[in-house]
Design brief:
Blueprint: H1 4-25, H2 29-38, E1 43-44, H3 45-52, H4 56-68, E2 72-77, E3 80-85, H5 88-104, H6 106-115, H7 127-136, E4 139-143, H8 147-152, E5 159-160, H9 166-169, E6 178-182, H10 190-200, E7 205-207, H11 212-217
Parallel strand pairs: 4-5, 4-6, 6-7
Antiparallel strand pairs: 1-3, 2-3
Length: 227
């Protein structure tokens, strides 16, 4: 019969082993990229492989690790397997992990300064301010993520304008309103590039300080247009 001390030790051992499963699951850059993509919405294994730039077999192996840790769930629809984050708490965990990493790593801050901060020195618009402008129709909001992500969920009244179609679609934007672009999150370069192009074309443009996952995670209203 186990003593109380031994039961307590066994409990702690199992407890931290389970915590470590999640740690091992996220200790890989490809798996973190998968989490970031799934934070935008459900994706098939084939979609993930194409986006990440690797094979279906390789993505499947990473997904197996993420599923075993409870971070990702999947469902089968015909011949395709669709994957998603297992809950909003996973998106919150991913966002917190990024913030912690930026706070701890000077190398990461230097990287962000080069690719994000130095390219966009204007003040970004915050969620509350954007929501107020959206409700009163004062600005034009564009979603520069891929269209499939827009259909899965987007900010109310936003216009789908994937970056690769921006040059063509911006011709239809009103020039008497400020344009606010958003994408996958604060470290995504899609909205940075979009704002640069819009300003060069004479538009008053800014970025949302966060992305769609943060907007959704804050409990702000969203719209869906899934087909």
């Amino acid at each position: 019969m186990l003593t109380d001390a031994k039961r307590f030790k066994a409990y702690k051992s199992e407890l931290y082993s389970q915590f470590a499963r999640v740690g091992r699951a996220v200790a890989n850059p490809r798996r973190l990229e998968i989490l970031d993509l799934l934070a935008q919405g459900e994706r098939t294994v084939e979609d993930l492989a194409a986006e990440v730039g690797t094979t279906v077999s390789n993505i499947s192996q990473h997904l197996q690790v993420l599923r075993s840790s409870g971070l990702v769930s999947s469902r089968k629809d015909g011949q395709f397997v669709h994957c998603a984050l297992s809950g909003e708490q996973v998106a919150v965990f991913w966002q917190a992990m990024r913030r912690l990493s930026v706070g701890l790593s000077s190398d990461l801050r230097e990287l962000l300064a080069i690719y994000v901060d130095d390219r966009d020195k204007l003040e970004q618009i915050e969620q509350a301010e954007l929501l107020e402008h959206v409700r009163h129709g004062r600005i034009t909001v564009i979603d520069v993520r891929p269209e499939r992500e827009f259909r899965a969920g987007h900010i109310p009244n936003a216009v789908s304008m994937p970056l690769e179609l921006l040059e063509e679609k911006m011709k239809g934007l009103p020039r008497d309103k400020e344009v606010v672009a958003y994408c996958r999150g604060p470290y995504c370069l899609l909205s940075v590039e979009a704002v640069e192009r819009l300003r060069k074309s004479g538009f008053a443009a800014r970025r949302l300080e966060d992305g769609f996952p943060e907007w959704r995670g804050s409990g702000l209203p969203i719209e869906r247009d899934e087909k």
